[in-house]
Amino acid sequence: MEFKGKAALVTGGTRGIGAAIVRRLARKGADVAFTFASSDRAASDLVQEIETLGGKACAIKADSGDPLAVRQAVEQAASVLGRLDILVNSAGVFYAGPIENVTLEEIDTTLAIHVRAVFVASQAALGHMGSGGRIISIGSCFAQRVPYGGATLYAMSKSALIGFTKGLAREVGERGITVNVVDPGSTDTEMNPADGPAVAAELELMAVKRYAVPDEIAAAV
Length: 221
Fold this sequence. Notes:
Blueprint: E1 7-10, H1 16-27, E2 31-36, H2 40-52, E3 57-61, H3 67-81, E4 86-89, H4 104-126, E5 134-138, H5 152-172, E6 178-182, H6 199-204, H7 214-220
Parallel strand pairs: 1-2, 1-4, 2-3, 4-5, 5-6
């Protein structure tokens, strides 16, 4: 299997794109740790699902908005799995609405999870990675273009990932470590369901009139 003998940490791994990435990495032979914020049952079920198929998995409860918790999650993953070769930054939030209505709390939370947590997790993970290490962040098509209003905060935070990725890729490339960002379009998740209130407007903007499914995004990782 492609990732046999490799160990991965996926942040925000119990739902949507994150869970799909956890499952795909496990199917390909990687030992996988993942973080979750609150859903103990979903985390336990995912670990059991992977172990039933013969894989190794570890669920780590950690708030991606807390930098200390993020660092501790990386260290715990490396300790439990015995190494760390792959980091996938997938935890995310989405606040929509006119800029006049955006609160300081929403700004802080979004930037803490989409930007600071990615920086901190990558910083910690690099201490365990050698040549062949991989850091992948889940961004958004909103970093490239914003098709409608009300998503300024989200677009700003995801745009920051592009600068981070380019900067870090330049910095660690000589060590044989690659850094990339995947920018999905509309994907059927709890955060943006394919039967949600925005579906008609989003489909109108698409050349292929359908939402992606999480496993399609996981395949790009």
